User: Fold this.
Amino acid sequence: MIDLHCHLLPGVDDGSRTVEQSVAVLREWSAAGVREIALTPHLDASRVTEGPPPAHDEAFAALSHAAPPEIRLHRGAEVMLDRPLTPRALATRRITLGGSRYLLVEFTRMVSIQTAATALGQLLDAGLVPLVAHPERYSICSVGLVARWREMGARMQVDATTCFMPTGRGAKARELLASGLADILAADNHGDRRSLADPYRQLGQTGGEAQATLLMVSNPAAILADDELIEVAPFKVKIPLMSRLKGWLGTLQQ
Assistant:
């Protein structure tokens, strides 16, 4: 498996705080079959002139020295598109996923449709491919809107564990999978227990082996190789009855 969205670069954002914390997660992932990851700390576009700050370079060096050798580490960032990136930042590709043309991006949760379209268009015009992080989080998210973003040329990263949550956000994530609009799944780990291992297993157990492989192996590998992605066939994710009941009871108690 390959995970292209995590906050395991230690001590630089709201994710892992120490090298030791990151290494503990990486060891668990290695045992579960994760072989490559992209470290994607939060970065505001308004604060990027050319590449990541020096503190990120130092943290990467420290983690690379201590990380399990079975997992290959790639650089990247999760870029908050609060303003257009500078031409220099667009050209150097120092914040893209593994130096590819794919850039992991996010918006504020209440972003407007027009603001998001303008931001994505700027990246596409510059020759980059925006990979929208967790589209299921945004208030404007709908199957129709995400389909339009993909028609523009953007690609979608859905949070893997969210797909199995009995929540409104989980329902949105499942709708995207059922409509064939997800391109990759990622854990969005922040130094915690989130992993691709359980979602990969759960998809496989419910008849989604081919989709699991595309979403968590083949398409992430294609991104790192700067290749085109393969379309993922629509798939309806089923969550256990007890999980659905817990989600329903939680809604009643709110």
Observations:
- DSSP finds nine helices and nine strands in the chain.
